[in-house]
Request: fold
Amino acid sequence: MPFAEVFLSPLVLALFGLCIGSFLNVVIHRLPLMLERDWKQESADLLGVAHEPTPAISLAAPRSRCPSCGHAIAWYENVPVVSWLWLRARCSACKTRISARYPLIELVTGALFALVGWRFGAQPVALLWCLFCAVLVALAGIDWDTTLLPDNITLPLLWGGLVSAGLGWTIPLTDAVWGAVAGYLSLWSVYWLFKLATGKEGMGFGDFKLLAALGAWLGWKMILPIVLGASIIGAMVGIVMKMSAALREGRYVPFGPFLAGAALVVLFAGTERVLGWLRWA
Reply:
């Protein structure tokens, strides 16, 4: 059996995805802290005021620790999913509960990588789509926690889609360019119509950039299905959260996770099937 068929099989990609999911947990937690630190420093420098420096943090350092007791997490306590089960979802030192979100991110990433292997087969392009899925998981997690879609991720995702199309790896370049344009302008138009009508901002600029990036990867034909799917699911989740008092007054449900989720549905369903659902084919 050729090496590629083994390495790019759904099972191997799933195991690889579990490990990447563990790293994505770090990205989701630390990247907003890194950005906040930089913003505070830049603001202090701009205003010319003293600023108490905060401890340096990156995606690689310092080592992961329990937020409650500071216990340094050993490698065998950081095995995706398995360690969480073995530790019975508690810190080995202070017994503080470890959120189920950590293994959930790992499992979701592993499942998405396996689906990529099933959808695209043992082709090098499968690794490119695995990267696409991993970035969307990271963006969804960050946006859910902070209502922030960092340019550090959305803009490279946009350019990655355009470059990949230009190299002939994904979709025709024309579809990618017009997908980026349609993605950005569609939500930009909704934003301004809503603001002119109500005087309030209904979404952030990060949503425009994310949809532009999705258009660059999936094409202009998929913009409306993504927005429709994200809007329906987002509205349902918002209503449930409101009824269960999980959504505090004055807060809103971020749109990014639902854009990401709808894009993944479109990716795995395929353009023809999605257009068939909408009876546009």
User: Anything to note?
Assistant: The radius of gyration is 20 Å. DSSP finds eleven helices and no strands in the chain. The chain has a mean pLDDT of 89.
